Amino acid sequence: MSMPHRAVRRLEETESLDRVAGPASKAAGRAVRPRPVRNLLSGTSLGHPLHPVLTDVTIGAWGASAVLDAVGGPATEPASDLLVKIGIGSAVPTALSGANDWSDTLGPECRVGLVHAMANSAALGLYVASMVMRNRGNRRAGRALGWAGAAVMGVGGYLGGHLSYVQGVNVNRTAWQQEPDEWTPLLDDAELADRAPRRVDADGTPILLYRDGRRVYALAATCTHMGGPLDEGAIEEGCVTCPWHGSTFHLDDGGIERGPASTPQPHYETRVRDGRIEVRVPARDGQGEPVERARHKVREGMARASTT
Ligand code: FES
């Protein structure tokens, strides 16, 4: 195990951080509770988590500034100063969107998130100090503070990458599911009572079935946000609400009514044949192959390639 990995593993196991991480993440959760705030900071209308988009701006600006400072010379100074200011300006919405995501974490993720936030706050402080020094004409101190900020930002960025790529925070939990791309019988029609959600299995993929009068709805039962069980969520007004963090999805097309989810819930066509409820990935007339089927074919191809 590499040294950075060992260090992060220790961080994950440091339960004493919970004394700060728990209450602070809960307070962040209360602050972002209003639906418009939640949707905005989660990237719900963007169709992608907002935080990684904004971090690119901040890291890009400060990283480029560090390079220009290293090159040095009067020609690079105005651009470097401007990049420091752009990074400071973008750091505020970046931090807010990060706090929104952090409010949904628990345990090891919450601990790593706390240190990630602390490192990035320290980087922001160093860059603000760097800007002050630059404005006063003390370029040497401005550059040194900027490089220190870049180093601390690197630590924060490493932890952010760990949160996403190792711990899977905010990763679409349905991305690897095997979708029923052909009509697949799931349940006897008589077994699905009206307005009583059922979790059924389609070749290993859990699916939520819900009957409302004559219509039967089918959605992936695993919440795209962080894997909550939608079959245990409240259903009202044509929507299901995840019991974990409150993402609300339309039953008919999986569209998001309320974040923190930013990826719509996979939904399926339904029909009744020979007394059995069947589902499949929806066909799209004239719009090419549904992405779920294309993905399925790619996976099958990879599986075949790995066995030959
Ligand atoms: S798991 Fe977070 S809203 Fe469903």
From TrEMBL:
The keyword DNA repair does not apply. The chain crosses the membrane at residues 144-165. The keyword Transmembrane helix applies. InterPro entries: DUF2231_TM, Rieske_2Fe-2S, Rieske_2Fe-2S_sf. Residues 183-279 form the Rieske domain. Pfam families: DUF2231 (PF09990), Rieske (PF00355). Keywords: 2Fe-2S, Iron, Iron-sulfur, Membrane, Metal-binding, Transmembrane, Transmembrane helix. Residues 9-18, 282-293 have a biased composition (Basic and acidic residues). Belongs to the bacterial ring-hydroxylating dioxygenase ferredoxin component family. This is Rieske 2Fe-2S domain-containing protein. It comes from Actinomadura sediminis.
